[in-house]
Amino acid sequence: MSASLAAFERPRGGASITVFKSGPLFISSKGIGWKLWKKRWFILTRTCLVFFKNDPQRGGEDEVNLSLGGIELNNSGSVVIREDKKLLTVLFPESDGGDFTLKAETSEDLHEWKTALEHALAQAPSDHAIQWRDKCTAKSLVVGRPILLALEDIDGSPSFLEKGLRFLEEFGSKAEGILRQCADVEEVDCRVEEYEEGRKTEFGSDEDAHVVGDCVKYVLRELPSSPVPASCCTALLEAYKIQGKEARISAMRSAILDKTFPEPNKRLLQRVLKMMHTVSCHAQENRMTPSAVAACMAPLLLRPLLAVGEECELDLEDEFGDNSAQLLVAAANAANNAQAIITTLVEEYENIFVFDDENLQRCSNVGSPRARDNNAQPDDSSSLALDPPQITNPDSDQLEEQVKGNENPINEVPKGESNGSMGEILSTFWGRSNQAPSMESVDSCGEEEVDIQRLEMTKNDLQHRIAKEARGNAILQARLETRKQALHQRRLALEQHFSRLQEVSSFSKILTQP
């Protein structure tokens, strides 16, 4: 097998990803010394080494051949071989636990893979991006934030994710392959780092839409918990399986509006689906149908449904032996179910969220600094508004005309609005209304409403966490009691055995006496 270079084209921009080598290698999830090695098909690129169960180019149409995993590469790595055992080890001195060992079939393959890996590591990105991710994990303005602050910063301004979603709706919805085509990893990390450091806190119209799309997916991927909790995923799955379109949509709406669905998670899901719906409305230009958009975003939104895919690890393959194909089929079915659920939510967005869409827009409108400037005058030339200007009486007949007449892009909020304030907006959003409040009381109540609602959201989130930990503790306690009883029985058995040995020993001494 030669180590010739091959390349396959990215969907956009003429850029290509170089494949340094592809072929079979043996991998062990137990490390060196474990006797059982699994043969897998590896593909080596500049940034990673991914592996499949079989050659993806030779698999049949009916064969499920998902990627089983990948190993990220950086230019600090080095290659060490052991010719006697045909072992190939890649060491990363600055990475804790990032080393890995593979086994070649022949000595020729061993040296070819060594050469290819050395070429790939020489061109691999630096580990600066990885170190920066580790550094920002502890305290970050973008990555790993709680869902409560996913769309809005503590001061009420739009978050990085919210700005990215607005950009995609305004400038990225017509880009071909948006959300499907991948940007360069270093460009994405660099853009996030620029925002973290305050060098570039807004998305300009000239930015690469694919980079912004990957930034949005990166933030969703790094959320500390799933946007849709496990119980809600189960409810959506059961609702999706209902026969009849109207009954299915009604059941899915009920699952989303259920009280067990945390309000911050619900708002985040609705906001992301709103962006996906906007993108899918331009399918003739961007070639991203609701199904295509759902295929890209479903794994990020419905993590618990995709958890079965994590069972396709090598450890479980050893447990199930030759039945590992069943795990891959189960993972594929889980992915298909998740995609189908999100596809339905995107296609029926206006029917499922018919009652909450206006509230979501108002809540998003609160986050803009200009929306809080009640003394500013409206500027028609800026016409970059997320939502129509707020009015004092939300029941006015003018509201519907303003909503229908709003065709403005989604990047800024108008400099001024009428007499509505943050307090009125949040009161309307949470089902409250004040009768003709004074400007002083509205300003003070607005701040109190923000604090109260954040505390309520935090309280609900903590209650869910406490309940989850309580269930986990109950399971652990039951296991502990079972283990305790087993040990007690074992102790009694050992004591009885020891007593019998003492009796035998005493009897032997008596027999041996002269």
TrEMBL record:
Residues 149-353 form the Rho-GAP domain. Keywords: GTPase activation. Residues 18-122 form the PH domain. Transmembrane segments: none annotated. GO terms for biological process: signal transduction. PROSITE patterns: PH_DOMAIN, RHOGAP. Residues 374-396 have a biased composition (Polar residues). One of its GO terms (molecular function) is GTPase activator activity. Signal peptide: none annotated. SUPFAM superfamilies: GTPase activation domain, GAP, PH domain-like. Residues 365-421 are annotated as: Disordered. This is Rho GTPase-activating protein 7. It comes from Corchorus olitorius.
